[in-house]
Automatic annotation (TrEMBL):
Name of this chain's protein: N-(5'-phosphoribosyl)anthranilate isomerase
Lineage: Bacteria, Bacillati, Bacillota, Clostridia, Lachnospirales
Signal peptide range in chain numbering: none
Pathway per the UniProt entry: Amino-acid biosynthesis; L-tryptophan biosynthesis; L-tryptophan from chorismate: step 3/5
Enzyme class label: isomerase
Keywords annotated in UniProt: Amino-acid biosynthesis, Aromatic amino acid biosynthesis, Isomerase, Tryptophan biosynthesis
Pfam families: PRAI
Species name: Lachnospira intestinalis
Amino acid sequence: MTGIKICGIKYDEDIGIINELKPDYAGMVLFFEKSKRNIAIDRAAEMIKKLDKNIQKTAVVVSPDINQIKAITDVGFDYIQIHKDMPDDILEKITIPVIRAVNMPDEINGAETESNFNDEIEKLIKNDKIYGILFDAGVPGSGKTFRWHRINGIKEKIKYSGKKFFLAGGLNPDNVKEAVLQVNPDVVDVSSGVEKDTGAGKDREKTEKFIKNIRKEQEKNYG
Ligand SMILES: O=C(O)c1ccccc1N[C@@H]1O[C@H](COP(=O)(O)O)[C@@H](O)[C@H]1O
């Protein structure tokens, strides 16, 4: 069964949608003022209390410092999703499971620009603090996809390691079925693709369609 993560929740209406549709994970963006989905830590604490206890709460951050990590742990998040910098000394101090986000570097004329990509994944696979590895497009939360075949070589390695393999980046109700068929991730992750057209908060119909399109496919395959 493919897990589902709905990211960037911010409003009370979003909580209602999440509690009703019950994805496996819900994500909140913190300490990143540049994002329209950014919320304050106190607001996150309030939202955690209102969310269904069976939904795993994930703090989504960019290059966090140790004080931010402490605040995230104190309010009761289940996971921390880290984009960009994650130095070893910071990782050592984290006490909740980490979802390491890999923002795929731009390709130049269809070719990879980073040769050490595989080395980084190998290192993550061996680290007990890492719960999962999440592949996203170059700019987090941009609603853009990347060419999925770029991770063909490493996805099985992640799966066999026992870490969760998350696919993110520009997923939406219309492409998620194809993403599951082509990539077969453990978890699909969406933010922009299930937002209202105004961009302010989650759209109930889009979120429901996203979830139904995955579950419908699974019912066909597993009954
Ligand atoms: O959503 C953001 O603004 C954001 C900010 C900082 C780090 C991550 C962010 N979003 C994450 O990006 C992926 C993919 O999002 P999308 O579906 O392409 O919009 C997802 O994990 C978001 O939580």
